[in-house]
What we know:
Elements: H1 6-11, H2 51-54, E1 87-91, H3 121-132, E2 140-144, H4 147-150, E3 160-161, E4 175-184, E5 186-191, E6 210-213, H5 217-226, E7 233-235, H6 238-246, E8 252-256, H7 257-267, E9 271-276, E10 285-292, H8 298-311, H9 313-322
Parallel strand pairs: 1-2, 1-3, 6-7, 6-8
Antiparallel strand pairs: 4-10, 5-8, 5-9
Helix pairs in contact: 3-9
Amino acid sequence: MRTALRPFALAFATILVAAACSSGASPSTGFTAPPSTAATVAPSVAPSASASEAATTAPTAAPTEAPSASAAACAPDQFKTVAAGTLTIGTDNPAYPPYFDPSSPNPSPWELGDPTNGRGFESAVAYAIADKLGFAKDAVAWTYVPFNNAFAPGAKNFDFDINQVSWKKERAQTVDLSRGYYFVSQAVVAIKGSPLSKVTTISGLKPFQFGAQVGTTSYDTIVNVIAPEKEPRVYDTNDAAIEALKNKQIDGLVVDLPTAFYVTAAQMDNGVIVGQFPQAQGEGEYFSVVLQKDSPLTQCVDQAILSMRADGTLDQITRTWMSDKASAPVFQP
């Protein structure tokens, strides 16, 4: 699974996304330019709301008030970082494509993808934020942070963390969560040819056994959207949940859509995306950057993300790494 991943990395430049709003301005960022193979590919499924509209909308509340920090206040010499003169960014390991593209070889300790190369969706977003904050690429350091540790209470060993962390009210009580940088649907993965693989409606999902990683919005989707007849099974990692699906301990795995594409292309020979869940207007799930609670950097990161929307940087990164050439049907009620 750790070898011959380059074809899969290129394949995952083609994952579904709601493309962020953009202007005609040419973005100027500090990340390594990704390949342009998917740069002009439009998503096959339109989002329920435009990124510019959804940027100020959360499922239950706005994550942060409109950024008001001045450019001068967001300069590197104006705030304290975990390591002096360095912006420390956290993420989980393995670092999965399409969020992180592999190097050959990956530097230690990174597996599957390499956050440090500026390639892959979240790596590129992270370096673009760093650039907006005034940090050159060689002034950025990466550190391993397990998914659940990112938003657990307590002091952090990173300045910000980027790891497909969806905005949730309970998480926002223990950490700061930024404006959304990616709007995402949840999806169901099953074994090809299984009874579940033929289901097209949410109501038709109810009799099956589902599993998901602990503490994720994927698990919430099982409980609140599918509401299955059988108690869902919870796993410490997505890898453990995938193994359970392979071993037929569960009928279906719920993950976000980009991860579903990766699972079915790189981690399962007989996996299939059964479908994705629709998003209600103005209530779309989105990924946020995680920061220490009441971090002085929060408004600066928010300002950077909104600036990336305005100048087209986020649109370019999104279309390059997360545009969709494949399709995942939307479940009907």
